[in-house]
Amino acid sequence: MSDNDDFPGIDPELVPYLIAAAEDDEAEDSAEPEAEESERLTALRNLVETSLLAGPDPDLIAELMGEIRAEDDDLFAEEESDGTALNPADAAAERAQVRALASELFARAPEHDFAPTLDRIEQLMDLLGAPQNAYPSIHVAGTNGKTSTSRMIDALLGTFDLRVGRFTSPHLRDVRERITVEGEPLSPAQFLAAWEDIAPYVAMVDEASTKAGGPRLSFFEVLTAMAFAAWADYPVDAAVVECGMGGTWDATNVIDSGIGVITAISLDHQQWLGDTIEQIAAEKAGIIKDKMTIVCQRQEPEALRIIEQRCRETDSVLRLEGRDWEVVARQSEGNGQILSLRTPTAVYADLYLPLHGEHQARNAGAALVAVEALMGTEPLRSDLVDTGLQAVRSPGRLEVLRGSPTVVVDSAHNPGGAQALRGALEEVFDFGFAVGVYSAMRDKQVELVLAELEPVLDELVITQLGGPRAMPIEELEQIASDVFGPDRVHVRDELAEAIDRAAELVDLAKNPSEDKGIVIFGSVVLAGDATNLLAPDRRLG
C-alpha cells in the first residue's frame, strides 16, 4: 500500500510532509530623532488642550503615542473559555504573543501581492479537511462597500439566532478584526489557537512550494485559512466572506458558496486587476460558480454585461438592483437613516440603519436580499430585520469620532468612495467650514479623489502614511496643490500634527456660528490611526 493511500485526495507531493508532521521578524522600531518626537508631543498636547484628544495629563502623551503606534490595543479584559477574567499578566502575555504572530505573518507576501493561482490555498484547505465547506456561506466581492455589506449580513443573520463567522479586510486597528465569531473579533487566545491549528500544514505547503521554485503562502492566504479553520472549530452556523482583492484568484475563492454579492464596481487596484471596468468586473465575477444566487448592486453598463454573461454561463440567478430589489425610500434620522427596502419577496418599511449615506442604504438592500436567499423563499420577519440593521456598526466609514468641531473619519480611497463621502457630507453634515486631513497609498488615483471632495472642503492638510506602499508626502503635496491651489494646502509629517493644524484652521474660520468639521480620509490605515488617536477606547469589531 502506498503512502498516499493513507491520505486520499491530498496532493502526492505533500504526503511526505504530512507523514513527517504526524511522526513527529519582529523588527525593532527605529528610534525617533529627539526633535521630531518633541514636535509630535507638542501636537498631541495641543489636541488635548483643544479637547480633540482625551487627557487628562499632557505628560502622559509620550506613553499614549507609543500605544497608538502599537498594532493591537488593549480594549477589553480577556477571558478564559469559562468566562472568568484572565489575570493582567496572562492577558498581557497573550496580547504580546498576538503582536509577535502578526509581525511574523506580515513578513509574508502582502495581500496585494498575489499570483493568478489558487494552488497553494487549495492544498492547504485539502490538508485541513476543507473547513471552508463545513458551513453555508455568502461570498462578497466588489470595489466599494464590501466590508459594510458584510457587516450588515452578519448582523441580520445573527438576529435569527445563527452563530455567524465574518471575514473582512483590511483591518482598521487590530489584525484580529478580520476574523469574527458572533460579531466579535477572535480573542487573543482564539487567534493564537487558530494559528497553532494550521501552522504545521502551512509549513508543509510552504516547503513544497518553495522546493518547486514558488513562493510561500501569502499573509492573506494564511489569514483566510485561519478564519475557515476557526469557524469550523467554533463551530459557526453560517459565514460571510469578503474578498480581499478581485475575486477569481482571491484566496477566499476556495469556498463553495451558494450566494454571492457584488457591490459597486469602479476603478481601483488597476495595477493588479486591470485598467478598465471590464477587466476589473471580470475579476470580481470570478466568484460566480454553478447555480449560485448573485445579488448585484447597480453597475456601469460595461461591468453589468460581464456579470450577466457569467451568470448565464454558470446557470446562476441574478438579483439586480433596480429590477429585483431597490431602496424605495430613505430619510436621514438622528445618527442614521430610515429606510424602506423592496426585495424579491416583500417590502420592508421603516427600517432604521445607524449609518449615513445613500451608499449605505444600498448596501443594506444588498445584504437583506442575500440573507433572504440564504434563509429560503419566504419573507423575513420585519421586526427581526429592523433589529439586525439597528445593530450594524461600520467603523472607519463615515464615523464621527468627536464633536466641537465634528471629526469624521472615512476610509474613502478611490473615486467611488470619494463620491459617496461627498454625498454624505452634503446630505448629513452640511458643514459651513470643513478641513480635510488626507493621505494615500501610491497606487491610488489621488487627483480624482481630491477633485471629487474639493468642492466640500475649504482647506486640506496633507500627512504621511507609513509603509512601502505609501505615496511620498512631496508627491501628495504637488497633486493636492494642483487640485486645491497651493494656498489651501498645508503639510504636516505626522497625523497628530495634521489634526492639530486642522483644528487651528477650524478655529480661525471667520463665522463662529456655522457648523465646522474635520474630515479625515484617504486610507483604511489613516482611519485606523485617527481612531486610535482620537477614540482609543472605542470597541473593536
Automatic annotation (TrEMBL):
<keyword id="KW-0479">Metal-binding</keyword>
<dbReference type="Pfam" id="PF02875">
    <property type="entry name" value="Mur_ligase_C"/>
</dbReference>
<comment type="similarity">
    <text>Belongs to the folylpolyglutamate synthase family.</text>
</comment>
<feature type="domain" description="Mur ligase central">
    <location>
        <begin position="234"/>
        <end position="370"/>
    </location>
</feature>
<dbReference type="GO" id="GO:0005737">
    <property type="term" value="C:cytoplasm"/>
</dbReference>
<dbReference type="GO" id="GO:0046872">
    <property type="term" value="F:metal ion binding"/>
</dbReference>
<keyword id="KW-0067">ATP-binding</keyword>
<dbReference type="InterPro" id="IPR018109">
    <property type="entry name" value="Folylpolyglutamate_synth_CS"/>
</dbReference>
<comment type="pathway">
    <text>Cofactor biosynthesis; tetrahydrofolate biosynthesis; 7,8-dihydrofolate from 2-amino-4-hydroxy-6-hydroxymethyl-7,8-dihydropteridine diphosphate and 4-aminobenzoate: step 2/2.</text>
</comment>
<keyword id="KW-0289">Folate biosynthesis</keyword>
<protein>
    <recommendedName>
        <fullName>Dihydrofolate synthase/folylpolyglutamate synthase</fullName>
        <ecNumber>6.3.2.12</ecNumber>
        <ecNumber>6.3.2.17</ecNumber>
    </recommendedName>
</protein>
<keyword id="KW-0460">Magnesium</keyword>
<dbReference type="Pfam" id="PF08245">
    <property type="entry name" value="Mur_ligase_M"/>
</dbReference>
<comment type="pathway">
    <text>Cofactor biosynthesis; tetrahydrofolylpolyglutamate biosynthesis.</text>
</comment>
<dbReference type="GO" id="GO:0008841">
    <property type="term" value="F:dihydrofolate synthase activity"/>
</dbReference>
<feature type="domain" description="Mur ligase C-terminal">
    <location>
        <begin position="396"/>
        <end position="506"/>
    </location>
</feature>
<dbReference type="GO" id="GO:0046656">
    <property type="term" value="P:folic acid biosynthetic process"/>
</dbReference>
<comment type="subunit">
    <text>Monomer.</text>
</comment>
<keyword id="KW-0436">Ligase</keyword>
<dbReference type="GO" id="GO:0004326">
    <property type="term" value="F:tetrahydrofolylpolyglutamate synthase activity"/>
</dbReference>
<keyword id="KW-0547">Nucleotide-binding</keyword>
<dbReference type="InterPro" id="IPR013221">
    <property type="entry name" value="Mur_ligase_cen"/>
</dbReference>
<dbReference type="InterPro" id="IPR036565">
    <property type="entry name" value="Mur-like_cat_sf"/>
</dbReference>
<dbReference type="InterPro" id="IPR001645">
    <property type="entry name" value="Folylpolyglutamate_synth"/>
</dbReference>
<dbReference type="InterPro" id="IPR036615">
    <property type="entry name" value="Mur_ligase_C_dom_sf"/>
</dbReference>
<dbReference type="InterPro" id="IPR004101">
    <property type="entry name" value="Mur_ligase_C"/>
</dbReference>
<dbReference type="GO" id="GO:0005524">
    <property type="term" value="F:ATP binding"/>
</dbReference>
